[in-house]
């Protein structure tokens, strides 16, 4: 049911540019975590370090019981097979049709017979809603379809960990919502650990179980979705409110005098809006890693802001949760 990722004291520089300084976090097994941060804070560098494409200067990256930066080449190769990675553009080969693109890791890394390859490829294409598009070339399909093809390819080796770099880049909000539903349903079906880098605040608010925010070479905060969505931290409030007011500046952090001037003017990043309900898996699917709405708030004595967990239909998801889980297990809808 997915593998835990434990990062301890991660430090990474390129020449004199320090990207990460002593960063530690645990990405829980089987859950969906989202990583946010201003542009250039090293989110992609972090994903590449997790999969062993970049070597940190210092620190540990535990994948289960293996410390990735200290693995010999053969063990590293084996450990990488635990990962599925979806890069921003899907990273498809332009001259291959979708079937061959998605079959590529199976043909490259396994000795499976072609009939088995076909079975797996079609199964994954169905999971991401691409059945029937096997013969299309990447140049003939939309950006959203490219992402889903890249996702199918990331899934063919049955990963324990799925890393996704900006799945919403270049997608309209509706396609982004559909893709997020694919992630939720996939997580219910395969139970892998998901880590998704995104700039989309709506995705961050509704998709994950956990949110992390990178800022100034450190992790400003990482924890359950509810914790960040009710945070008082100015940097968290500024980012989640997409506000110009707060510590984050255009290219780097603002200095003391700018922040003092904002405070004198009474400017503030603003309070965060009510916590929205988390996106649910489609009918018939149940996610093992999903947090019941309000569980973190209850455990930590935090009163959820008014309106939290109440959806568009006026349903209170704290009260509905046990009924929801039971109805999903039976394949019915909670509203029915
Ligand atoms: N291989 C490399 N060599 C030198 N510098 C690099 C390398 N890879 C990344 N960087 C630098 O590291 C910094 C962080 O880059 P990264 O792509 O991880 O940022 P990001 O947070 O993902 O940004 P964005 O949100 O804009 O995609 C940037 O300044 C980038 O130029």
From TrEMBL:
Listed CDD domains: ABC_Org_Solvent_Resistant (cd03261)
UniProt-listed InterPro entries: AAA+_ATPase, ABC_transporter-like_ATP-bd, ABC_transporter-like_CS, P-loop_NTPase
Record SUPFAM superfamilies: P-loop containing nucleoside triphosphate hydrolases
Keywords carried by this UniProt record: ATP-binding, Nucleotide-binding, Transport
Stretches with biased composition (Basic and acidic residues): 261-270
Membrane-spanning parts: none
Stretches assigned to the ABC transporter domain: 5-241
Matches recorded under Pfam families: ABC_tran (PF00005)
Stretches for region Disordered: 251-274
PANTHER family: INTERMEMBRANE PHOSPHOLIPID TRANSPORT SYSTEM ATP-BINDING PROTEIN MLAF (PTHR43023:SF6), PROTEIN TRIGALACTOSYLDIACYLGLYCEROL 3, CHLOROPLASTIC (PTHR43023)
Designated name of the protein: ABC transporter domain-containing protein
Record organism: Actinomadura meridiana
Lineage per the UniProt record: Bacteria, Bacillati, Actinomycetota, Actinomycetes, Streptosporangiales
């Amino acid at each position: 049911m997915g593998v835990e990722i434990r990062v301890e004291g991660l430090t990474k520089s390129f020449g004199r540019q320090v990207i990460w300084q002593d960063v530690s976090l645990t990405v829980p097994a089987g859950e969906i975590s989202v990583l946010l941060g201003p542009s250039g804070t090293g989110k992609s560098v972090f994903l590449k370090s997790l999969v062993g494409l970049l070597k940190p200067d210092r620190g540990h990256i535990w994948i289960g019981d293996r410390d990735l930066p200290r693995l010999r080449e053969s063990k590293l190769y084996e450990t990488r097979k635990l990962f599925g990675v979806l890069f921003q553009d899907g990273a498809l080969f332009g001259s291959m049709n979708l079937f061959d693109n998605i079959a590529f890791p199976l043909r490259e890394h396994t000795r499976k017979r072609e009939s088995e390859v076909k079975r797996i490829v079609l199964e994954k294409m169905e999971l991401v809603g691409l059945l029937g598009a096997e013969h299309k070339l990447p140049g003939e399909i939309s950006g959203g379809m490219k992402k889903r093809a890249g996702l199918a390819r990331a899934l063919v080796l049955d990963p324990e960990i799925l890393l996704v770099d900006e799945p919403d880049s270049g997608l309209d909000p509706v396609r982004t919502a559909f893709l997020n539903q694919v992630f939720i349903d996939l997580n219910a079906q395969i139970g892998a650990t998901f880590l998704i880098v995104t700039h989309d605040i709506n995705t961050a608010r509704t998709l994950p179980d956990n949110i992390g925010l990178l800022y100034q070479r450190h992790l400003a905060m990482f924890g359950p979705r509810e914790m960040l969505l009710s945070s008082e931290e100015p940097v968290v409030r500024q980012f989640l409110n997409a506000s110009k007011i707060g510590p984050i500046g255009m290219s780097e952090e603002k200095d003391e005098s700018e922040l003092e001037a904002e405070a004198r003017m009474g400017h503030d990043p603003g309070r965060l809006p009510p916590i929205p309900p988390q996106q649910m898996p489609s009918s018939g699917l149940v996610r093992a890693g999903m947090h019941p709405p309000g569980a973190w708030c209850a455990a930590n004595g935090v009163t959820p802001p008014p309106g939290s967990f109440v959806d568009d239909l006026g349903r209170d998801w704290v009260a509905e949760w046990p009924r929801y889980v039971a109805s999903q297990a039976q394949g019915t809808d909670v509203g029915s």
